[in-house]
Amino acid sequence: MSNLAGRLYIVATPIGNLDDVTLRAIEVLRGVDRILAEDTRHSRRLLDHLGIAKPMLSLHEHNEVEATGRIVEQLKAGESLALVSDAGTPLISDPGFPLVRACREQGIAVIPIPGPSALLAALSVAGLPTDRFRFEGFLPRRQQARKAHLQSLVRETTTLVFYESSHRILESLNDLVEVFGGLRVAVLARELTKLHETVRSAPLAELLQWVEADDNQRKGEIVVLVAGAEAGGDRLSVDVDGLLGVLLEELPVKQAAGLAARITGEKKNLMYRRALEMTKD
Ligand code: SAM
To answer: Cα separation of 188 and 252, whole Å?
Structure first.
């Protein structure tokens, strides 16, 4: 395949099911001189599955800036290279951006070999509007930054898509409930294309309860999708008094206020004051 020379191929690979690899991806991976991989041992499993033996170089978030110059020189010297990540489409919350930018700046051909991405797989089955969406990647790790970021998204009207890791899903869901309100509809898309594939749609408070109650829902890889402000019910439209009224029939003021705050995303002291007013006479 001599026409591959001096080109960088960005090759999407499966997000779980190894059969989700395109014919063109196989052809390119077979044809290039070398494969750049985020984790060479991980990608070797896919290459073994495809019967491809190829020299590999590692390109990950800690060396990609430093390695870019060297790789550009290899491409200029006529080598053909394919970039793959551990799963899905490279550069989508994965390494490769500095390299692609450097190649484009220097007139080196960068060719996409499209295929799986958890973002689009999740969107395609979530049942939320897809005509417009906002991909937010991973949320900040620290709670204060995470909440501030979520706050900046609360009025966004398009579907929001987040990547999340299994060990942070509970914390993130808690913050989503607090900021967006428990009534906002969301979808958890977990382990897509794998044995334990699960897609569940429900109001955020319900999803949180479900994940809290079942540790299996905290395992594996997860995409969280949140309905846009109008599509899923804006929190301003929640009938707070109605909700508090129902809760106060069953619970003491403090508990009712706490629960109402969790469900609506409003401040606890605000709910508490309102609950006191409602129980005054
Ligand atoms: N480049 C990849 C892509 O195109 O989807 C994403 C890489 S990012 C480092 C990994 C995140 O993608 C995971 O934490 C999870 O949020 C999501 N993800 C990857 N595979 C998934 C799967 N099979 N099911 C659900 N989410 C997945």
So the answer is: 33
> Does the structure show a pLDDT above 60 at 235?
no
CATH architecture of residue range(s) 7-116: 3-Layer(aba) Sandwich (3.40)
Q: State the amino acid at position 58 in one-letter form.
A: S
Tens-place pLDDT, residues 94-113? 999 999 999 999 999 999 99
The residue ranges of every structural domain in the chain are: 7-116, 119-226, 240-280
Q: Which of 77-86, 153-162, 202-211, 245-254 bottoms out in mean pLDDT, i.e. has the lowest?
A: 245-254
In terms of DSSP bridges, do strands 159-165 and 133-138 run parallel, antiparallel, or are they unpaired? Answer: parallel
119-226 belongs to which homologous superfamily? Answer: Tetrapyrrole methylase, C-terminal domain (3.30.950.10)
Please name the amino acid found at residue 73. E
pLDDT for position 281: 64
Ligand 1 atom at minimum distance from 194 CA: 23
Query: Cβ < 6 Å from ligand 1: which residues?
Result: 15-16, 85, 87-89, 92-94, 117-119, 163-165, 189-194, 221-223
Alpha-carbon separation of residue 195 from 45, 80, 87, 255, 268 (angstroms)? 18, 35, 16, 40, 41
- Average model confidence (pLDDT) across the chain: 92
